[in-house]
Amino acid sequence: MSRLPLGEMPGGIHPAEHKSQSNGTPIQPAPLPKRLILPLNQHIGAPAEPCVAVGERVLKGQLIAAANGTISVPVHAPTSGTVSFIGPQPYPHVSGLLSEAIVIDSDGLEQWIELSPRADYRSLAPAELLAIIRAAGINGLGGAGFPTAVKLSARSAQKIHTLIINGTECEPYITADDRLMRERATQLIGGIEILAQLIEPADVLIGIEDNKPEAIAAVQAAIGERPFGLKVLPTQYPSGGEKQLIQLLTGAEVPSGGLPADIGMLCLNVGTVVAIHAAVLEGRPLISRITTLTGAALSRPMNVEALIGTPVGELLAFAGLQEAQLDRLLLGGPMMGFSLPSLEVPLIKTSNCLLASTATELPPAPPAMPCIRCGDCAEVCPASLLPQQLHFFALGQQHEQLKAHHLFDCIECGACAYVCPSSIPLVQYYRAAKADIRELENKQLKAEQSRQRFEQRQERLRCEQEQKDAERQARTEKAARARAALAANQTATEPGAAGAAPAGLSDEQKKLKIAASMAQVTLKKAEKQLALYTDKGGDTGELQAQVEQLRGAALLAQSALDAALATTSPAAPSAPVADAEQALKKAKIGVAMLRAQVRKLEQLEAPSAEQASQLQGLRSQLAAAEQELEGLPNQLPASGEPAPASPAMQALKQAKIALAMRRAELKKAEQAGADATELPPLRAALAAAEQALHAAEDACGKPAPNLQRLDKRPIDEATRTLKTELALARADLHKLERNESSAAQALSVARERLQAAEQKLQQHTET
Fold first, then answer.
1. Does residue 94 sit in the same domain as residue 171?
2. Residue 396 Cα to chain centre, angstroms
3. How far, in Å, CA of 3 to CA of 1, rounded?
4. For FRET with 344, which of 175, 197, 641, 728 sits at 20 to 30 Å CA-CA?
5. Residue 376 CB neighbours (<10 A)
6. Tell me: the pLDDT tens digits for 455-490?
7. % of the chain surpassing 70 pLDDT
8. pLDDT in tens, 170-210
9. 3-state DSSP call for residue 635?
10. How far apart are CA 726 and CA 162, in angstroms?
11. Are 323 and 229 members of one domain?
12. How many Å apart are CA 366 and CA 724, to the nearest integer?
């Protein structure tokens, strides 16, 4: 950190002051306007967010727009009245563009909200004091407009050791701070004490230029015995710049691109300090400010305390505006102010001066001439920059060179343009270059953010695709393992699995294999349906019979497939033995299945005629299967040598295979929806195959099976409904009978219901 002798700063100029026009009279209260325009953005940062609606009545000091984010400031109603409009309104800016605002029509009553002064602020925690300042809507009143609460809470690694109060007011024409210090020095010192309580600085320094002797005397008297340092500075423009004032008071220099807080210092304007005093000790939010009304076009220049939102035209009229003489209306002083596009723009929190000048007072600048390299601009620059180099870089849009030469350290004081013999508007070039750089950096930032979002999206999509590929690969591997296991299982259960598998299947064998698989699938579906009805407690007798029939059909289909595979398998020494063992195993399974079917039908309490007929057929089949099973062990070779098959047994096997094939052909045709002319020949072939099988069984000495053909015609909807009702009635009755606590009346009703269901079904069947 560089040091300079106290009371000096680099550069600076001494323009004509013109302060005597307005500093000779006390601060005047401005008239209450009929209409107030409150812009939502009167500060640096995010605009406030409206919290009132059109047509709503508000009181003086009431919150009408809340802070929207960390760097933002709330807005309060300057008077009581009615919200008449929320939307674009004129705004005090050189562009002349409209800005969002809240419009209040005054009712003239000046009715306040209930205030909450805190005279006990010394007992409050720093966070509570900051909250009061933030809620009061205070931002810098010296011109920059940075939120004061944010400035007070923005602590660097180094503690704030020096609090600096800016009372220099170096800009020509402006005397608002001068009159404020003269008339409200006590409130100023009270505000400094609040700040000292909040940030606990080691030193408090107050800087005032020597062209304000009355203000210096008033502040010195108000300080009294307090340990606050008052330093009188020589009049020099721009001593009121934040960094320049720090140099003048302490000799310390704020580093390029840095803030005063980086070197442990904090600087506030005297108007801001008085607003803090009003917020804490009086409970009043920032709804008014002292503004200088000056210029040769005014007959009564003065300082007024005006409500925020007052149209500037009304203030100028109060000061005696002579519109015929008005040439330019500036917001601020002649060095750093800018021209207002209209008299309808409102006064905002940063409006410290309205300068109504005549053409003689502030004549237009002469045409700009080429730079002559005189160096005067560099000599007066308070930031020790090279204005002529910045000018050339700005003309060539050399942004990197502008940043390398510290363009953003320029405070736009206008001293360089003031002394330029070529009348070059240097500050305008600097402002335009800053705007271009900010816009370019903003675009680059948005592009970088877009690139990051794109890369993140691409990475997310890549991860999702990898996950999908991994899941797909896992499913493929799982399916392959399942197919391999199924193939191994089928190979193990097929005849000849212990030896070499056949090289390939014939078309007939493939058809039989498909039929066997379809029979197994149908059987499994029926078994699932049976299990479902069993869990519900319904009548499952008929469904059980269908399952047993499907199980028998599946067994026959598998037997036909096994027989077809056995006839074409290559001969092996152990094949006859394996065939015999397989036949014995299947015979045992068949007997067990028939016994289970017979037992289930025998357990029915009141079997129907159809069920009784089915039971009789199953008993006959069971007797034949048991007789066949008894004869199978005698057919096995005693020594394990293959026994030659008799012609009768060979004929029987061929008859079984033919029967299975005819059934498969008929079933396939029925499922395919064959024409009515195609089915009779297939049924006749099936009947002939059955007769051939019976003849083969007679030739082998086996008893003839009891032939039964069940009609599988589709059941109509009425019959299905009646059977369902019968099953439900029977299930409800059985449930009541199993429950010992069931009432006799409930049992009687259930029996009557069952009897009625049986009668309805019987009548429907007979008709």
1. yes
2. 44
3. 7
4. 175
5. 18
6. 999 999 999 999 999 999 888 888 888 877 777 766
7. 87
8. 999 999 999 999 999 999 999 999 999 999 999 999 999 99
9. helix
10. 99
11. yes
12. 108
Can you say how many angstroms the Cα of residue 721 is from the centroid of all Cα atoms in its chain? 53
pLDDT band at 375 (very low <50, low <70, confident <90, very high): very high
DSSP state of 205: E
Cis, bond preceding 147 (omega within 30 deg of 0): no
**Domain encompassing residue 401:** 384-493
Where does a domain end: 441, 463, 493?
Answer: 493
Kindly state the helix (H) or strand (E) to which residue 564 belongs, with its residue range.
Answer: helix 541-568
Instruction: Report the distance separating Cα 17 and Cα 49, nearest Å.
Output: 40
- Domain co-membership, 113 together with 135: yes
Least confident interval from 153-157, 612-616, 701-705:
701-705
How many angstroms separate the Cα of 272 from the Cα of each of 101, 289, 346, 715?
23, 10, 20, 95
pLDDT confidence of residue 70: 86
Nearest-angstrom CA–CA distance, 758 and 762: 6
Distance separating alpha carbons of residues 93 and 351, to the nearest angstrom: 11
C-alpha triplet 585, 587, 590: angle, nearest 5°: 110
Whole-angstrom CA distances from 676 to 665, 683, 710 are 15, 11, 20
Residue 302 token pair: 């003065």
C-alpha gyration radius of the chain: 53
For residue 319, is pLDDT > 80? yes
pTM for this structure?
0.62
| Closest to 653 (Cα-Cα) out of 709, 606, 692 | 692
Cα(698)–Cα(279) distance, integer angstroms: 119
In terms of domains, do 464 and 576 share one? Answer: no
Sheet holding 81-89, edge to edge: 35-39, 99-106, 81-89, 57-58
Residue 17 lies in a domain: no
The residue written with tokens 């067994």 in the block is 555
Same domain as 100, residue 75 = yes
Residue where the block lists tokens 């015929």: 324
- Average pLDDT for the chain: 85
Q: What is the mean pLDDT of residues 133-141?
A: 95
Task: Identify the top-confidence range among 368-372, 499-503, 653-657.
Answer: 368-372
Q: In what order do the strands lie in the sheet with 229-233?
A: 229-233, 203-209, 162-166, 265-269
Q: Which helix (H) or strand (E) holds 152?
A: helix 148-153
In this predicted structure, the answer to whether residue 387 has a pLDDT above a threshold of 60 is yes
How many folded domains does the chain comprise?
4
What is the model's pLDDT at position 493? Answer: 55
* Cα–Cα distance measured from residue 709 to residue 671, given in angstroms and rounded to the nearest whole number: 19
**Helices then strands (H, E): number in the chain?**
21, 17
Range with lowest mean pLDDT among 119-123, 648-652, 662-666, 722-726: 648-652
Residue 499 domain-assigned?
no
In our burial notation (b when 16+ CB lie closer than 10 A, e otherwise), range 697-711 reads beebebeebeeeeee
User: Token pair for residue 441?
Assistant: 């950096």
Strands 229-233, 265-269: pairing is unpaired
- With respect to residue 7, please indicate whether it lies within any of the assigned structural domains: no
Q: Does residue 500 lie in a domain region?
A: no
